[in-house]
Design goal:
single chain; binds pyridoxal-5'-phosphate; 417 residues; Rossmann fold; alpha/beta; globular; 2 domains; 14 strands
Amino acid sequence: MAKNKTEQQSLNTMQPDKNGYFGNYGGAYLPPSLEGVMKEIADSYQSIKEDPAFIEELTFLQQTYTGRPSPIYFAKRLSDAVGGAKIYLKREDLNHTGSHKINHCLGEALLAKRMGKKKVIAETGAGQHGVALATAAALLGLECDIYMGDIDIEKQAPNVRRMQVLGAKVVPVSRGTKTLKDAVDAAFEAYMEDPVTTMYAIGSVVGPHPFPMMVRDFQSVVGREAREQFLAMTGHLPHHVMACVGGGSNAMGIFSGFLDDTEVNIYGVEPGGRGPAKGDNAATMAYGKPGVIHGFSCYLLQDAEGQPLPVYSIASGLDYPGVGPQHCHLKDIERVRYVVATDRDALVAFYDLSRLEGIIPALESSHALGYAIKAAAKMKSEETILVNLSGRGDKDMDYVMDHYPLEAYEEQKLLVK
Ligand SMILES: *Cc1c(COP(=O)(O)O)cnc(C)c1O
């Protein structure tokens, strides 16, 4: 059981230093025109986060609007089929809008409102952050502009429609890779044009200080709930906790319930894509080196000049060349192990969970699940794995069935191996 640690020593609630660094990573690399506005966000957040009225409003919305707490589910048929450790799922897919992203979007939109902003703007990859932010904006009466790469717009058409129905403006980004990285650049530029009446609502634990800390704080409700629920359910903590890592927000959310419990093994699962070659994956920790992107420093997939490399993953929400600074710190201090699951691992896990449990997972979450299934097979039946099921897979069904038809799965009667 966890020892009682002081606030300062806690990794669960670790604060960045005064310049916004977690260890060697993070900070705020900004054009002078944005330094003031970012400080304004940091200062407002610092005062608001302790405000009982803000906490009460956020908690009320989490319970009555999002549907928190999300349950923990023991995946018995999947665990039996694997024949090793028992696999449990934290069901963030059951949140309103279908993923964990509503957790930080409600927080960010509430903050924007309190700061007197009229509009929130953001980038989106899979469309999940865009949908969640458009939802929060509709709820709180804010305008909302969402920047999205052309390729993602095509891949994620239903989410584009959803944002439009919710009243958001979807701005297509046709430059560069036409995916998440360029959408971030475009959204940043739009923000610089009007930082007074708008607030940038970043979609993960990335970007300049205070976003990595703030988004982590808004997501930490997942870990706090999960720790309590798992204890109540089993009488002990999970032996292993796993989550997929794109920018790293769902992972920081669940990890921050368990980082101080040193007996719990924690794994961040990165997208291994088609393999280790440059441009074939987005496994930042596995293949990257420290660098700077989008206003912060982190492990980065980069070329010799330090420019971000084009990255790839079957999961739109994971194909980002950087990663949250706190994750980089957790890697360096060896508290979290960062591992890889390939496209294929994710696709097989997508069908495995659908067929064995009646739960269709997001392709992003399927990476964590794919790694968990492989790992569980090598473990004892007394061991337990808690996977953060970050989202539901309805958005991915067409894409999966076109690229990895059902017959292929059924022919091989696969479990991820
Ligand atoms: C966006 C997304 C992710 C990846 O983002 P993180 O910040 O790494 O959590 C993972 N799962 C789902 C369902 C998503 O929508």
